[in-house]
Amino acid sequence: MTKVSTGNTEPRLPWAGKQVRMEDVEETLAQLWHLSADNVRIGQNIRVRTSVLNFVICAPNLAAAQHASAGLRNLGSTHIGRVILLILNPDPGAPPGVSTWVTLRSFPIVSDMMRHTFEQVTVLLSGSAASAADTILQPLFKPDLPVYLWWLQDVPTDNPLFHHLANSSSRVIVDSHGFFQPEASLMQLAQISRALRDSALSDLNWSRITHWRQLVAQFFDVPAYQRYLEGVFRIEVEHSVLPTDSAEDTQPARSPIAGATVNATRALLLAAWLKTSLNWHIDPSHPDNYRDPETGAYTWHTLHRTGPLHFIPTEETAEGLYPEPVISHSGEGTIFVRPRVQPGLPPGSICLVRLSSTVDGKLATFTVNRTDDREHALTVVTLPEGASPPRTVPIPGTQPAIDLLHEELEIIGRDHLYEDTLQEVYQLLSEI
């Protein structure tokens, strides 16, 4: 039987609801549902209750847990049947203990007259109990429902807890924007993802670069520009960083789940996606390959055969097989990821993407450059005969995690493109 401590060291979490023993969770929730039903009969509002999935949020501390709990008010997903907010006490000297709180949460669907209601169970594990989190949580899952895990911290390299929780989940969601050690966490995430055969993997930061990927792809929707794909030889991606001489008191207050002040994760994902799309291969022996995670600056030199992204032959060979794609140009290329100081942008935001190409000895560039207005970017195509008029396009700033999370909870299948791109990032970081 799990005991609830009554000493002075027991934390008080008024936002988490009523504190109960773990074996009393189901009974207490049933009582809360009865009270809720009585309130509905007395009032004139409608309560909607669904049971589609168990949603586990794993927080590294109380501040991050409270921030995530408050954000659930704006989540707006009617798929959640039960939220389990798992808090891990980071103090290795803390005595082993399990503390549990329960409450019902609701938010309006159409209007305040119709509200979706779900259960929230908050579990605080300290000491050695934290290492057994996957076992402790099992009785709290609503049976026969998938488990979605939202991991609110860096991916540990020396702790099997993440691996155990991920293996028991249908979907694992991280936000690399909040990593304090972006490189190490990405590398570890890539390694773990290979072993997650039954668990889909998502990164909210991947969603944040969707608009940038679309804008780059739209350049080559224009038939006159498609031939320049054959001659791309340079990729440049810039990401925002804070000024090195800025005083801390001049910076806006940071979220409890904000990550490192230099975080090139989005730029690395975008560079890896472009590298794969162009079928480039890193030259690991090139002496000018460069990697500086402290500043977020990287350079890779490539050996590649460039050409159309897809080749569909019109005739079959005598053996009935399609021939190999005809590549029109061979050469070397370079990928640059660089930091850029741009006031008003959170660290890690994409500032610029530029592709440079040569065809018939003539240079062309395709640029998406974020303006001082953080919600817009300029797209410019510079051809040998001159530059096109700049086009202003809307582009989101750093979207709040809770907004992106709503979309992730609607997804059932795997995002194979993201998982493949994550492995490409691993290869990029391993080559230098």
UniProtKB/TrEMBL annotation:
Q: What Pfam families does the annotation carry? A: OpcA_G6PD_assem, OpcA_G6PD_C
The Glucose-6-phosphate dehydrogenase assembly protein OpcA N-terminal domain is annotated at 77-191
Domain Glucose-6-phosphate dehydrogenase assembly protein OpcA C-terminal: start-end pairs: 200-286
Where is the signal peptide, in residue numbers? none
* Record protein name field: Glucose-6-phosphate dehydrogenase
